[in-house]
Amino acid sequence: xxxxxxxxxxxxxxxxxxxxxxxxxxxxxxxxxxxxxxxxxxxxxxxxxxxxxxxxxxxxxxxxxxxxxxxxxxxxxxxxxxxxxxxxxxxxxxxxxxxxxxxxxxxxxxxxxxxxxxxxxxxxxxxxxxxxxxxxxxxxxxxxxxxxxxxxxxxxxxxxxxxxxxxxxxxxxxxx
Length: 176
Known about the structure:
Number of helices: 6
Number of strands: 8
Largest sheet: 6 strands, parallel
C-alpha cells in the first residue's frame, strides 16, 4: 500500500445490510455537543447498530477522543448505543484514538484484532479501510448515512480531500 492508496482509498464499500461478517466493527468518533452525537457520529452509530442487530458483528469498538474539546466522544457514543439496547458486554472503548490511523493501530495492537469492519461516511470509510489494511488488518468499509446540512457536507469533504487524505498517505509512507 502506498501513497495513492492513502490519497484515494481502496476496496469496496458496503451498506450495513450487505456487509460481510466480522467479529468487530470500529465506529469512529467525531464531534459531540451537549452530550449528544453530531450528525456524522449519529449516522455511524445508526449503521453500527444495524450491523449489531443483524448479527453481522459481535462487538463494537467505539473509537475516538475521550477528552476532546467538544466533549467525551466515547461516553456519548456508548450511551447512545446502550439506550438502544446494545449491552455493555458488546462494547469496547478506545478513548485515546485521536485520529483514524491511531484507531486502526490500537485495534490491532491494543485489542488484538485482525478482522474488522470500519464504519463511517463514504469519504472516510474508504480511507479508514485503506489505513486498516496498511496496518495488517483484514478490513472492509461500511457506509454510514448522515442527516447533515449541505454546509456540513462541504466542510467535511473539503477537510477529507485537502487535509485528511494527504495526512493518511504521509502516515502510510512513514509508518507512523
